[in-house]
Hints:
Strand content: 25-35%
Distance between the termini: 138 Å
CATH topology of the domain at 12-140: Immunoglobulin-like
Strand order of the largest sheet: 11-39-10-12-24-8-40
Amino acid sequence: MTTKYFCCNEKRRNQIEAHPFLNGIDYLEVADNPIHPDAFQTILHVHFIKDIGPSSLTKEQIIIEGGERIKNITVTQIFIGYSSSPPFSPPIGDPSKTLIVQVKETGDFSVYTLRLIKDPKLGLQEPPDNYDPILSSIEFSFKIECRSDFDCKPEASCEKEKITPPVITYLAKDYASFRQLMLDRMALILPQWKERNPSDTGIALVELLAYAADHISYKQDAVATEAYFGTARKRISIRRHARLVDYKMHEGCNARTWIHIEVKKGFNNLKIQRRIASGGPIVTRFLTKISRDLPEVFPSSKPEYQSALDEGAKVFELMHDEELHADHNEMNFYTWGDDRCCLPKGATSASLAGNFSKLNEGQVLIFKEVKGPETGAKADADPSHCHAVRLTNIKLTYDPLFASSPPEMFVTEIEWDEEDALLFPLCISSKNDTLSVDNVSVAIGNNVLVDHGLTIDDSNSPSKQSSLDPAVVSESVITPVSFISKSCCEKSLPDPIPASYRPMLLEGPLTHAVSYEHKKPFASATAVMNFSAEGTLPSILLYEEGETDEWLPQRDLLNSAGNAPEFVVEMESDGIAHLRFGDNTHGKRPVANTKFMATYRIGNGTSGNLGRGSIAHLVSDDPTITSDTIRYVSNLFVASGGTDPESIEVVRQKAPHAFLTQERAVTKLDYEELSKRISNTIQRTACSFRWTGSWRTAFLTVDREEGKEVDNDFKKQLRKGIERYRLAGHDVEVDQPRFVSLELEMVVCVKPNYNALHVKKALLKIFNNKQKGIFHPDHFSFGQTIYQSMFYTAAQNVEGVASVQITKFKRQGDDNNQATETGKLTLSRLEIARIDNDPNFPDHGVFTLIIQGGK
């Protein structure tokens, strides 16, 4: 007798073990005959639950059934104990519970059954006395030790019955069709229910389910719509689709400008601060003009502050701390006693009249024309003649002509960055027949950088209410449907997934700004104002209540560690900011019941691009910054840089082509093209591959615009920029070009009616290495063949020149005159021609001009 069931938990073995006298088979093992090694798989070790009584079983009571090819297996001998002497080490089971069954021959690969019967001679097939009817037989295989790729454990045969689902039309997509579908189904399975009264409970339930199905159907359609780049309507969906092709959709940028703070006379060393304490509230803000008059300086506790915000005043906040001095309000240029002076275009230094020892490197001065050069009237000053420079060097000196008058003898020499070089000539003093005007332009100090946006700080607000909705991470979880295998005994219990935490900011639009650090090395004033919306990040920080660690915003979480407290801000078309957190694989997942406090700014886009003089009010909670110390504030430049968020349609047009942008350097051409993308001062790059003993190295020989030197700072910048593009295993080195200095001798015959000196001057004006000269470095590059014809053409175009003859044209110091004879000079791939004609550097090329004729 065998069991008719397949059970996942077999309890009967333990019950037999606890029974006072019943016994049964526990398990069976197949072994080789130790006496006859050639008799493979002819010994069966039958292990029982309890001890086997002596002579309780005979070999006739053991029947082996089954087999496909080999049947009627005969038992030749049985005994209790081990099948070998000495026994196996370690022993196989308890010898008193082990029955050794020896068979005549081994079986095939099919399943056999060993059965205990009471008396085969009398035809009694039931189990012997005191043996359990269920555990008196066992299935086994003689080939159990043969290699198999599958588990020998039997599979369940009790699969769940498949239920035939009802026939449902999937054309039902709205309330009316869902209602009719359910009523038709009810008519089929419950024909006796014919009620159609709207007040009936059944009809009410049907209509309620139809209403819910309509909402779910709309959600399905919306999800399908947002799943494709061409049909998506939500800004967040477009942003994610674009990111898949490495296109980063920007959310706009806030505006910046320079603010001049006029300090009242007698107040020096006045510190204006963004925050008084680290992590404290913002204490300095600037407001634009509104329709009614407001004080120039007032604290945020005054009702005027809130009324100005309610009226729509734009808020700009200080980006760095600064020390103010009344002496720096307006500083005159010193012209060393000369008049009718100007700072030329491209100037990077000047002299100030006076001892300005409080000026420091990194401070910004604004050069402004304050008088009309012709009339001397302030109303005639050109407001566009305004330029900001960042000081790089300050030197105090004196004018010995005024040694007897100490206040007049002091002079302050200032220098500024080349990037801040003057873009126009700046008039300092002028004079005509009737009027002499001094101090046409002045240097204005006490300038600070500000940007658009109002900070909202939950931790410093009186109510201590969070700006997030919701602010607390929910405890709710999503439990996936458990997976059931073919065996009903094997169930996979999935881990519950915490519900997604997607809070929103209650106020907006969220400010997106380019990061700014006011410390050495200081960026030039020009560089500070040149920024792009592609490099912005949202201005927001999150804090867990009671904790000081910051959660930082990122563009995405692809490079975020699993424990990194980082998140992503996703903006919707209505300006609402949604925050997305990580999953403990890419970014940290917030713990349940965590309450977040936010510090963020609102104000973004082109609304911050304001005209000159639009900012007129200073709001400060610092007790030292009051109307007693500050006269007024004003922006001398337009507020610029504000950019609106990139539209969905623009992204649809640009994103599909984003992956075509070259983002790797493998070939020589790749390195040459990508180096130009890194620095806009590169005219051309030549790449060479060499094996340096350990690495394959890409040597970049760089030709910079205007012949600028390839110094260590530039090399470091280029290597850092090319790092993201270079092929793994390639090293990168940056080289100077191989300059080839030339000797050029030209004989020019001047027409009789022209002054020879005037013609020579005109020729030297053309044949030089300045911006418009024919020898300018930008006219030559790598491997360029230099033809005499370009020099002939340039000289012949000068008025008064009758004829031109080049008598010498060769490499400097080379006796080979082949280039003079052939009219061209060939250079190798990494060589650049150079003719500076500078007497200080005679080895940088020489141009000799011989003038004949004329008068």
